[in-house]
Amino acid sequence: MQTQVSYRLEKSGQYGVELADAHCHLDLFDNPGIAISDARMGGIRFMITAGGNRLSSMSAISMADGDSVFAVIGVDPQGAEKDSNFVEELERLVKSNTAVVGIGEIGLDYKIDVDRGLQRQVFEEQIEIAKSLDMPIVVHSRQALDDAMAIVKEHMVKKAMFHYFEGDENQAVSLAESGYLISIPPFETSRRRRVINAISVGSIVVETDSPVVGRSPIDVIKTAEWIAQIKGMAFADVAHRTTENVKKLFSI
Ligand SMILES: [Zn+2]
Prior knowledge:
Layout: H1 4-15, E1 19-24, H2 32-41, E2 44-50, H3 54-63, E3 69-73, H4 80-83, H5 90-96, E4 100-109, H6 116-133, E5 137-142, H7 145-154, E6 160-162, H8 169-177, E7 181-184, H9 190-198, E8 204-206, H10 220-231, H11 235-250
Parallel strand pairs: 1-2, 2-3, 3-4, 4-5, 5-6, 6-7, 7-8
Helix pairs in contact: 8-9, 10-11
The structure holds zinc ion.
């Protein structure tokens, strides 16, 4: 039986390139160590693992080795109710851990039953912390993109990645023009195809959000193949460019 990993090994060997998974949750894997080594064997050079509350942020820090794994830490909309006081610790944690490369995931989620005023307040507090540290933010937005975009622009954020981008091509172009990155998950939709068509590869990164959405960081290979096909580019170019975009945003 050919496993997914051996199949991907073959593919990455064939391509001879290495990709970055711009957003995953390694702490949610049953065995994060195996997930990381499988990803490395499968052609993934490094992963950005994201926290969203105190516990997951501390896990992200503990897994970040500054080589295969980097961490972003923060309080997401779900975490805003219980862990808003964790925001006060972010600055110290960022300063004492070199493998922490950003603040995230932070943002707005109108699908969940958490007070929107509180979500906004916690989002804005963390944007200001990121700005004071000259760090990028990783934005989570679900059914809230117009508001999330407006807040990021109002605060004149310089470095941001919109993770699991949910918007349309006009919103994508507007974000790309502001210098922000659009992160594409491993799910093909016609709307997402239009987004990929509308912006340059210089504004695109690939992610899996695994294990929540993708099964493994290796799934970025599928997304990069899809982007290459849509844009009529070589897979190796898409892999290289998207990886460079991640490196540049997070100063890796
Ligand atoms: Zn996520």
